[in-house]
Amino acid sequence: MTSQTPVAEMHPQRWGAPESATVLPDSARALVDLAFGLQDHPAVVGATPPPAALDDDLLGALRALVGDENVLVDDATRALRTRGKSTPDLLRARAGDLTDAPDAVVRPDGHDEVAAVLAWAGEHRVAVVPFGGGTCVTGGLAARRDGFAGLVSLDLVRMKRLLAVDEVSMTATLEPGLRGPEAEALLAGHGVTLGHYPQSFEHASIGGFAATRSSGQSSAGYGRFDAMVVGLEAATPTGPLSLGSSPANAAGPDLRQLLLGSEGAFGVITSVTVRVCKAPAETSYEGWRWPSFAAGSDAMRTLAQAGLLPTVIRLSDESETAINLADPSSIGGAGGGCLMITGYEGTIEQVEARRAAVTAVLTDLGGTPLGNEPGQAWAHGRFGAPYLRDALLDHGVLVETLETATFWSGRQRLYDDVRAALTSSLGEGSLVLCHVSHVYETGCSLYFTVAARQGDDPIAQWQAAKAAASDAIVAAGATITHHHAVGTDHQPWLDREIGEVGVRVLRAVKAELDPVGILNPGILIP
Amino acid sequence: MTSQTPVAEMHPQRWGAPESATVLPDSARALVDLAFGLQDHPAVVGATPPPAALDDDLLGALRALVGDENVLVDDATRALRTRGKSTPDLLRARAGDLTDAPDAVVRPDGHDEVAAVLAWAGEHRVAVVPFGGGTCVTGGLAARRDGFAGLVSLDLVRMKRLLAVDEVSMTATLEPGLRGPEAEALLAGHGVTLGHYPQSFEHASIGGFAATRSSGQSSAGYGRFDAMVVGLEAATPTGPLSLGSSPANAAGPDLRQLLLGSEGAFGVITSVTVRVCKAPAETSYEGWRWPSFAAGSDAMRTLAQAGLLPTVIRLSDESETAINLADPSSIGGAGGGCLMITGYEGTIEQVEARRAAVTAVLTDLGGTPLGNEPGQAWAHGRFGAPYLRDALLDHGVLVETLETATFWSGRQRLYDDVRAALTSSLGEGSLVLCHVSHVYETGCSLYFTVAARQGDDPIAQWQAAKAAASDAIVAAGATITHHHAVGTDHQPWLDREIGEVGVRVLRAVKAELDPVGILNPGILIP
């Protein structure tokens, strides 16, 4: 069964569908002008990609595999498959830089056609970039093309089927091209949900969630995406991989966990079997105020270690709370402190029981309940931040995010060090905001958002800040990325995370599964 | 800090410490005689291993690395490090067959000494078998020695420290040689517990739990061992691996999950950092009766999918319930049906709340509460079955177990098919019992125990039954092992589980981490 509500293409220079593009809200203009100065930074219009490198013989062989209509070489399509949606990606796109455009976009349908495209690419030494939703923010769609005859974007847009639902085992098998809303619409037909809502939800794909170890805003309740996966199939240049005999087993290393997070460098994930849950009858989001980020974080830790997490739990630091644009009326308000959002999903009984238990703990720890309004405001605006980024880029404000995770005992140091590194690099007048949005019994994520007035070279400006933050992260022993994947941006720090031997293991697996090295060259593996 | 309560060596021909050896209980003699005929099968006494193959020069170099007293070549020590504790292993040991004895037992202390021993072994082409508790039941300690200058058992007995406890993050870092009770005694000093209680608990080691993806009887509450691990260090011939920046991350594939379950074939795990929980203030075990295995299984599924699992939940099928030797008074009793054990651990409030919620669901589904007595009987006898096996082997009764797991929708077929395969292979008069002891939202394990009168070649008798069961398991698409690992016994079916490409990935990782192939040759990887 295929989704009846296809997700629209994103704007080539902005986040989201073209018709959804927004301008800076009036309520924020004065504040932004005061903080950074309003500048006019329009995007270049009418840029075209460089001429395609693949000749007609090569393209003809490709067309024979997937059909003429599924090998696209027009400029507009190639522009739409150029890079992802990090701020550097957007800055390049806005500047009219399409140098990373693929030579062609190929749209195979099904595992066998994907395998055939990989065989064609291996034979002719063509680099292949698997493409799901195009929402990557770590440079994972800008593969290296030197040494290759060309580069194609392997677009999974035709693979959007719900292949199976097992309502006894509560699993669903999904094709990788399904975007978040398409998958949820199909699952809703069976009364079930994945419950996976990263900020990229509206455009990101099932295959992308798997290939990048995505984590959603409801991770406290539904788990990370990698924790939902019980099976997967992948096409690799070496052959097919089909994994998932059981929820868990002891039949050697868990190879599912080797494909999850492999970012298209080991193979193309052609289906994913995931644990699903009954669609919630009740959802309820609330706000809490804490006197400090530390006090709110400690409360999160208490809940996680007591096995009492809500479905959604997130905590903004003092700065993010003050700048909360999702609720402009609260800016500079008398409240102060740190805003926490708690969300509950499930049956009415589950929601009530969990809410009562959590409320008792949070009240006991000194939290102040703020009722449903802040929760509803958050839920309403939960996918909106990337649109605001575009509106700020229009006005010469550099906005970007980065995220990390550590164990609870290291949280304060990590927060202090990364904040100091970003502030020091971006200079006076920059804003550094942070929130915790994914918690575990043993630790949590930290998600930073920065804003600064753009200098002459905003990409270099960000790269310097990112490098300073990444250095601080690895020095603190934390992870270089909790849920955004490695791509190219995190690669310089990967060996600090998994060691030289860990990198060698990745290279060995890559050499076995992709001996010619056509899959996402330069992505993930240093 | 090191444990003050060292676990004793196991008997070379039986499970458990020599002084714990038992005879067949009087209450069972008549039943066993009726079912299988009481025979007298004494073990051979005084067998010695073949002469050691390593010469003095090689041993001298090894002694220089770890100290003279830590290179042992006496027959008794070598005999104690021969194979594991599967029924075929015991049958061989009882027959006086010590042909798999190592040439020496080497006891390094710490990561660097382990690495030095691996370097020595690589240089001289000596096979190395990492040894933790020696409880393996899948042939994982009988490495291949052809093509090697010799074979040493790398005994982790000196690595028994609790290296760190982080009471904020609720993690502990343990050395691999700690046996279950030793680890728990050290953790109890900090008021925390791992909560990992496989049947082998009294003798198995932390390193073994990690290397084999062990799952304990309290897995519903505390999780599988692999789910507890947040970090690990390993010595490999290629170099050190140190993983675990964070509870979870997106920094590429999760390489922790590649070392977990690697059965000593990729490296020697030299420390493990695990999530711990507060030691429970309250524990409570209860019994329930179900009209059928299917009804009880469905109730387990309902609990798992509602997020309402007890800490322990297990369900015996009709046969296992009838033959429940842990509670002989119930045999042939009027109850019939299937016995379920539910256990609750935590604070008094947690135990009461979870018990109330579970009781409501189970009552609603048609379960009959049996009170605490069956629960206490189970808890009292939970580690006892392997002793009973020895007592039955003394009387010529072949007893062995195997286990698998599948998704809920496949449970009935898997149960029927494996049961039929075992019954058919072992013939009339054999007993096949089954229980579910590990449940997930999407599926469960099935654990089979068989008993039959020993034929002339009991090892071949079991191997035929095991092969029939394994064929049925892979035909049903289930896992060849839920928590006993691959070893050598499951190897013929591994390619059916992970595919030819999956096996190639394991080989590639092995070649990278252990290029000479000294680590556990012939184990895990076909």
TrEMBL record, chains A, B:
Coiled-coil features, chain-numbered ranges: none
Pfam families recorded: FAD-oxidase_C, FAD_binding_4
Residue ranges annotated for the FAD-binding PCMH-type domain, each copy included: 98-279
SUPFAM superfamilies in the record: FAD-binding/transporter-associated domain-like, FAD-linked oxidases, C-terminal domain
Keyword Flavoprotein (UniProt): yes
Keyword tags: FAD, Flavoprotein
InterPro entries given in the database record: Alkyl-DHAP_Synthase, FAD-bd_oxidored_4_C, FAD-bd_PCMH, FAD-bd_PCMH-like_sf, FAD-bd_PCMH_sub2, FAD-linked_Oxase-like_C, Oxid_FAD_bind_N, Vanillyl_alc_oxidase_C-sub2
Protein name: FAD-binding oxidoreductase
Naturally occurring in which organism (per UniProt): Nocardioides potassii
